[in-house]
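Collaborator request, handled under Task 6.
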Amino acid sequence: MTSRLAHIVWHRLTGLMPGELNQAELAWLVSPHFHLTLLSRRRATMIVNRVRLFAFLFAVLTPLWSIIDYLVFPFPLWFALASMRILASVAFALLVLYYRPSGSLTDAYRAMAILFAIPTVFYVATHQLLVNYQLTGMQAAIGAGYAFLPFVLLAGLSIFPLTLLENILFALPMLLAQAVSGIISWATLDWPSFAGAFWLLTLITGVSTLAGLSQLAFMIALVRQAVRDPLTGIFSRRSGEEVLELQFIISTRSNAPLAIAFLDLDNFKAVNDRYGHEAGDSVLVGATDSISNNLRRGDMLARWGGEEFILIMPNTDLEQAQQAMRRMRQAGFGLRPDGSPVTASIGIAERLEDQTLDWKTLVEKADQRMYRAKQSGRDRVVCDDTV
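Structure tokens returned to the collaborator:
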């Protein structure tokens, strides 16, 4: 019963976003915990850029409304509101000037928290100030406009590619702020009006959440296409370079080992020449499947070009990398069209052992050793410069 219900829900959701997600990616809409590192970095960059755009808009427009306030409110009230507006505008401007994308989701969350905290505090403060005045006519109409700020903020969530959990966590403070404002004016609260406004806020939150999820689904689909090799389904060279750069930084900061293996399928050109490119593609897919089935948890495989592959092995020293390659060679790399086994020449390099200062040098080391494996007779592993 549970599986049938999940199946129905899945089909309903994919019907709303046809062709964008596969079933394995559905959980990615719920929590960022399931996201690939590359997706997280791209999403973090996009979130911070949109935070800065949002903050710029608020920094410019927030003080301008003081002109309207000046025309309708008494001076003491106008001065207090104008002071709050200037402070809020300065805070927004500082967010624009001093916050830059770093590719870190933690930084992105912090930027969003600051962005929404500024107007939320402004809303609570101005609401508490306005309830102390008996406003009538045009004053009451302009004063009522301040009550629309939470609606604007919650609608603004729709421009961010957020998961369901993230949307809930960022919307909750604003919904709570609305509840707090009602508690502050408890004695004079118009309950039907308050309940209607709160329901509308909840509805806007739901619509913004759907818009954010739709953006995220589209982004997942685009990133998948960008980071995956279309033939084999593993990481493309460009995404492999990003992963390797990130892993190298992590390895350097933690002083942990990082090994890579450069694999080149032996005599692959002969397959294309004798059996055609379709047969060659089948050999590549078979080799990729064989390698992928024997990867350890945390290892990442990228197609570097043609019949060349890079295997990234975080927290792996040279001896462990050699053991991993021995197991992989024993499992095999698939079969050629004539039924003979596919073999590979492999070069291994490790950050600490080879004392490399950047990931490109690490790749060059592994590449050079792979060529020496070929020159030494193919179908072997070279892991140092002594052979």
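The cover message to the collaborator said: "The chain has two domains: 18-227, 237-382. Strands lie at 258-265, 300-305, 308-314, 344-350, 381-382. Please let us know whether this matches your experimental observations."
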